[in-house]
Amino acid sequence: MNPKNFNRLFFVPIQGASLSHSAAAEIFNKDESRTDWHDETLWFVREKRDKAVRQIAEWEQLRSLGSTIKDHTLSNLDNYLAEFEKNAQANGIKVHWAIDAEEHNEIILKIIRDQKVEQVVKSKSMLTEECHLNDYLAKRGVEVVDTDLGERIVQFRNEPPSHIVLPAIHLKKQDVSETFHEHLGTEKGNNDPQYLTEAARQHLRTKFIHSQLAITGVNFAIASTGGFVVCTNEGNADMGAHAAKIHIACMGIEKIIPNAEHLGVFLRLLARSATGQPITTYSSHFHQPRVGQQMHIIIVDNGRTKQLGRPDFRSSLKCIRCAACFNTCPVYRRSGGHSYHTAVAGPIGSILNPNLDMKANADLPFASTLCGSCSNVCPVKIDIHVQLYKWRQELVSEGYTATGKKVAMKGMAFVLSHPSIYRVAGKMGRWMMRVFPFIINNKSLNPWYKQREMPEAPKQSFRDWYKKNKQ
Amino acid sequence: MSSREKILGAISINKPELIELPVIDIKSTSVLAADWVEQFTKTLESIGGKVIQLSSIDVIKEEIQQAKIGGEYIVNTLPILGEVNNEINSTMEASLLETVDRAYIEGSMGVAENGSVWLYEHQIKNRLLPFICQHLVICLNVNKIVPNLHEAYKQIDVAKEGYGVFLAGPSKTADIEQSLVIGAHGARSLLVYLISE
User: Fold this and answer.
1) What residue in A sits closest to B170 (Cα-Cα)?
2) Residue B160 vs residues A80, A86, A142, B120, B156: alpha-carbon distances, Å
3) A297 and A424: one domain?
4) b (16+ CB within 10 A) / e for A399-422
5) CB-based contact (8 Å) between A41 and chain B?
6) Where are the domains of chain B?
7) For A136-193, how does the pLDDT look when each residue is reduced to its tens digit (9 = 90+)?
8) Which of A31, A35, A196, B186 has its CA 20 to 30 A from that of B80?
9) pLDDT value for A138
10) Is A438 a domain residue?
11) What value, to the nearest 5°, has the Cα angle with vertex A403 and ends A400 and A409?
12) Dihedrals phi, psi of A96, to nearest 5 degrees
């Protein structure tokens, strides 16, 4: 299968394959109380982040350092990757390179088949989601058990994660209770999170103990020492990696940092930005396989070198996947992660995904109010809202936007560049809103009225008012 | 051309001009070491851990004896606390480690700003032990607390051993409706004894 066909097949989101962000968001918004709950819960996480950040006097200095260390690393990435490879190999780790998702998946399948592995566990790795590894392996008869609690919940439900840090944030405890009753035989109607988590603990402990191969992600890979760091709160990456005979760690090329001292900056930024914790419960530093264990690292490109070559968008590769931009985004909070139909949702996903497939993801840069809150909370100072704006221009000039939007924008440009026509149009608009409001506030004719009410139209424009009152 | 060559080649064409690596010039806080102990304690307790200061390790020895009499599978890895469980080694099977009720491990360093403790591989005997045991107890010299992670990384050598971890509190999750639950996959509790003996 050539890579293009592969992308067609596997980059199709599991849910809402043909729905744009706005169409999927409309469905999400139908349950108003759930939408409100989703909005408030994520804002609560954002507030926890604020509280944690305010306790660090040097926070802005840390952000600047994090940003510049990543800028530097990207500007020397080839040398750091080669240095990392050399040091990792000296540590006894086998290093693989994958140009795209297909090659990444093939490498893993080959290790599984060569070693006759039957039991595979996986901790959270957005890269393996991006590569649709689970689907790929399932089609070839290999079952992968996701071990992060949120990921296990969505896996049982055949759904993709809706958030990169909180994979099941779109679900209520009743949903989890029903899913666990069906798959783990928990009591029907018992919605207690403590009870449900305990059931998952018992279920997954047996999976850990019997697994032969563990797949993990990588938060940071250290060029100068050839080791890597994996962060979790649950301890699932460690339970998997330390119990299995084979450990495969999957990383995008951008996960490299020069030295261990830089971990001091990034580990201070990561958990505070993500959940408001001072650090994740476990920050595990892997440098060598344990006695009798095989350790593999797969270094994956999958479009990243292309993004590196786009001066306007390359800084998106600095992302450390904290999801602070998700939690603060008014559009994400009220549309849910599945509306973004990609592995990485939210504002950062909306600037990463058009690089992977401009046509399929042309809607995403428009799923934003450009309010800039994402850029303000980003721990590595990515100018996310600026890039959202730039992607819109790129997509329009490449012809990837809907005709309706194009015509409307052209009309708008004409009106705005002709003051007399603008004044007449304004007058007509105000008159229409007063005399025939049902034409304007009709939700099927004017989508601005969905979930919105507009103020009453004034009798005169500001210009008319100013002319009359300027004495 | 291999994927390795393709990727490295594409990077060398597409990367921007070299940007200088900044110096990490964050000043360590000027507060006294005694305050670091207080901050470490407060922070670790805020994330679900428990901290007890001790001037004598006799209390721990007694605790271990009592738990053993009670029939718990206690693993001690510190010779100063008495008999060491030599059955715990780097190749012990997960199914056996899974039966450990409580493990006593020595920590290398505590970090005041985030309540974490650095553990080297030789201190945990088996990489799974601090995760798979039901309850974890770490013994740490009270003088080994540093103010922040920058200081910690100056003092530890991350590549000295095959594995090392900053461990901060018991295993936890909030994946169901953001309700905090302690005891996800790893230890259900963490107790740190700060020893000034």
Assistant:
1) A281
2) 20, 17, 36, 9, 9
3) no
4) ebbeeeeeeeeeeeeeeeeeeeee
5) yes
6) 28-195
7) 999 999 999 999 999 999 999 999 999 999 999 999 999 999 999 999 999 999 999 9
8) B186
9) 97
10) yes
11) 95
12) -120, 155
Whether residues A287 and A417 fall in one domain: no
Give the H/E segment covering residue B120: strand B116-120
Among A41, A36, A325, residue whose Cα is nearest residue B178: A41
- How many structural domains comprise chain A? 2
Chain A residues 83-122 within an 8 A CB cutoff of chain B: 91, 97-99, 103
Q: Which two tokens stand for residue A146?
A: 């996701």
- Where on the phi/psi map is residue B67: left (φ > 0), alpha (ψ -120 to 50), or beta? alpha
Query: How many CA atoms does the CB half-sphere of B63 hold within 13 Å?
Result: 14
Pairing of strands B172-173, B181-182: antiparallel
A134 or A457, greater pLDDT: A134
Task: Find chain B residues with C-beta within 8 A of A333's C-beta.
Answer: none
Contact between A17 and A367 under an 8 Å Cβ cutoff? The reply is: no
- Other beta carbons less than 10 A from residue A98's beta carbon: 24
Q: How confident is the model at residue A16 (pLDDT cuts 50, 70, 90)?
A: very low
Distance CA A116, CA A96 (A): 19
Task: Give domain status of residue A111, yes or no.
Answer: yes
Contact A308 B47 (CB under 8 A): no
Phi, psi of A97 (to 5 degrees): -120, 135
pLDDT in the model for residue A14: 38
What the block records as the tokens of A150 is: 């949120």
In a domain, A409, yes or no: yes
Q: Which amino acid is at A241?
A: A
CB–CB of B16 and A311 under 8 A? Answer: yes
Q: Considering A246, A274, A305, which residue would you say is the last residue of a domain?
A: A305
Domain membership of residue A171 as a residue range: 3-305
State which of A305, A322, A344 marks the end of a domain. Answer: A305
In a domain? residue A267: yes
Interface check A52 vs B, CB under 8 A:
no
The 8-class DSSP code of residue A455 comes to: P
B residues 159-178 closer than 8 Å to A (CB) = 159, 161-178
Give the amino acid at A169: I
Which CATH superfamily does the domain covering B28-195 fall into?
NagB/RpiA/CoA transferase-like (3.40.50.10420)
Select from A82, A171, A291 the Cβ nearest to the Cβ of B90. A291
Spatial CB neighbours of A382, under 8 Å, sequence gap ≥ 6: A67, A315, A316, A318, A319, A348, A351, A375
